[in-house]
Amino acid sequence: MNTWRSASVALTAAALLALTTACGQDQAGDGAEGQNVGNAAPAEGGYGDGYGAEGGTGSGAEAKSAGQLAVWDSKKLGEVVTDSAGFTLYRFDKDTAKPPKSACVGECAETWPVVAAEGAKAAPGVDASLLGSVAREDGTEQLTIAGRPMYRYAADKKPGDAKGQGVGGTWFAAAPDGKKAAPAADGGADAGGAAEGGADDLPGLSTRKDPQLGEVVVDKNGMTVYRFKKDSAWPMKSACTGDCLENWPVVQPVEKNDTEGVLKKGFVVFDRPDGVRQQTIDCWPLYTFSGDKKPGDTNGQGVGGTWYAVSPEGKLVGAAK
Question: Which region ranges are annotated with the description Disordered (predicted)?
């Protein structure tokens, strides 16, 4: 028995050492404040609502029915399904429709409260057979549309809000057929703030020479990549939550072989408590800025004294020490 315990402890220590080596513990002095997701202080500029904001439902809370569904014709989003109170319903890219399955559990379900299937009625003119349900791990029957589980967003405060659109590149308003809501002629920038005309031949992450900032990391669209000083790398934690993510969308996971010129050490994916997966460099969470409209923009540089472009090594570019 003692031999087994010793081996178990040794394996655990080895795993921890490997992660420490990957992410490093040499992050002190690089601007991290080490706040945990869910207990993060609001970011400067009024951003950064925590998970489980008003309107959220905890993992044990009773899911609310949508009642009589309706369809809202948004010029920006196209046809969007709402509940009887006019609140937008969303779908999650990590879920599956065949078979129906939800990947949003725990703290994720506080930010994205599930919609109960009971009492839901199809919107006028919409095929009622598209409505269904899926049993969640806690026994809740969640509403599905064409097999897609439905959610609300805790940061939507009034009917007609669609603040969850495009969050993390994985959450989208639902159309009446369960697909992602989209205008009839969808040729604009994506919800994460990437501009039209991005360079299609760029790797998932690469670098460019900025005339003012020097070498900075850019995403596959040529948009500048940023870090938040309130985040930490060891352990990996993000202080950008809720409304903050509308202004600072996360960089989605990128394969190591789909990069050029960036540090591979600590090039890991951060599984956020809201269900979004975020790419890191040297274990620092990465973001883009919705205020950047075209490749080469650096409008996020220095915002609030906490947001800065990222060097190829994952360092803050131009931040005061």
Answer: 178-211
